[in-house]
Amino acid sequence: MNLYDYAIPDSGERFDTLLAEKNVEIVRIVSSDTLEKKEYWQEEDEWVVLLEGSALLEINGEEKPLGRGEMLFIPARTPHRVLRTERGTLWLAVHIHTPSP
After folding, report:
1. Which of 41, 59, 78, 90 could disulfide-pair with 51, CB 3.0 to 4.6 Å?
2. If you compute the radius of gyration of the chain from its CA atoms, what whole number of angstroms results?
3. pLDDT band at 101 (very low <50, low <70, confident <90, very high)
4. Do residues 12 and 32 make contact, with C-beta atoms less than 8 angstroms apart?
5. If we measure between CA atoms, which residue out of 86, 55, 84 comes closest to residue 72?
């Protein structure tokens, strides 16, 4: 598999799980420039890096622009949403799940 071998969706985002092992999940996200207005609220921590393109996120009510190579950590249970992306924006997201006791 090649990280850069993907199709850009006509609308929304495409999520491909690249690795799911123990308490870590690595997901490739490819964004179109037409997004649905969806708020995310996750039980796990998430670290994202923008590999290509640009995006504007809203995290806990605050806007955060991201450009190529920029990274962001989103703690568990933090409301966030993607407000805008450039067509073909490529993300790598690492979800860190809390291990069960």
Report:
1. 90
2. 13
3. low
4. yes
5. 55
Q: How confident is the model at residue 1 (pLDDT cuts 50, 70, 90)?
A: confident
> What CA–CA distance (Å, rounded) separates 4 from 1?
9
Q: Are 82 and 29 in contact (CB under 8 A)?
A: no
Amino acid making up residue 66? L
Print burial letters for 57-91: b (CB count within 10 Å at least 16), e (below 16).
Answer: bebeeeeeebeeeeebebeeeeebebeebbeebbb
Q: Mean pLDDT across the stretch 5-32?
A: 96
Q: The domain 18-96: what is its CATH number?
A: 2.60.120.10
Residue 83: partners with Cβ closer than 8 Å, 6 or more residues away: 35, 55, 56, 57, 58, 63
Distance, in Å, from the CA atom of 36 to the CA atom of 51, rounded to the nearest integer, reads 21
| Domain boundaries along the sequence of the chain | 18-96
